[in-house]
Design brief:
2 domains; four-stranded antiparallel beta sheet; Outer Surface Protein A, domain 3; 194 residues; single chain; extended; three-stranded antiparallel beta sheet; alpha+beta
């Protein structure tokens, strides 16, 4: 039994959910998103609630433990993805990234992102459909209605210049704590003093 999967999703009044088989279309004030629920999971739209159940009872054959585990994990995953989509079309999602380092900066060029992060050339990041970039001082905001796409875009930007543990330079999530390491010189002086 999936504790997450068995919880019903309450649909807000300003959101419309339509179902065609296992395809859910979610419309809200900020936009429209579509999700295809895996074939192993059944979706029931009852009034203003969505219920998810695994389709294990329909098959006459006995499931192995790995198949049952996969269905349980898909059950909870599907429910959470749809809950995030409903939240996204109502409130939207955003991730903030912080650039730190001497001469490191970000600029918007026709909606795309241009990063000067210590390479010999500026790094261009094309704006995916459904994502908006905004920059304030050294903070990049990645915003959109699809939480998965926002998180993936922010992670790929962060991957361009991971934070350095020695000088704390690079791109990190806002509020992320990077534990600074002592360099070789500092480590040699502390061990030599004993």
């Amino acid at each position: 039994m999936s504790r997450v999967g068995k919880k019903p999703i309450l649909i807000p009044a300003n959101v419309q959910v339509s179902q065609e088989g296992n395809r859910l279309t979610i419309k809200g004030p900020k936009g429209e998103l579509v999700f295809n629920v895996p074939a192993e999971i059944a979706v029931e739209l009852a009034g203003s609630q969505l219920h998810f159940t695994p389709k294990t009872g329909e098959s006459k054959r006995k499931l192995t433990s790995s198949q049952a585990k996969k269905i349980r994990s898909l059950w909870g995953l599907s429910r959470n993805i749809v809950a995030n989509l409903i939240d996204g079309v109502v409130n939207g999602c955003e991730k903030k990234l912080e650039i730190s380092g001497l001469g490191y900066r970000a600029e918007l060029q026709a909606g795309d992102l241009s990063l000067s992060i210590g390479f010999s050339h500026p790094v261009k990041v094309k704006k995916p459909e459904g994502i908006n970039f905004s920059i304030e001082k050294n903070i990049i905001t990645v915003a959109g209605i699809d939480k998965g796409l926002v998180g993936q875009t922010a992670a790929s930007i962060r991957q361009l210049k991971l934070p350095d543990p020695y000088k704390a330079k690079g791109i990190k999530y806002l509020g992320e704590i990077i534990r600074k390491k002592a360099g070789k010189k500092a480590a040699a002086t502390t061990t030599g003093a004993k």
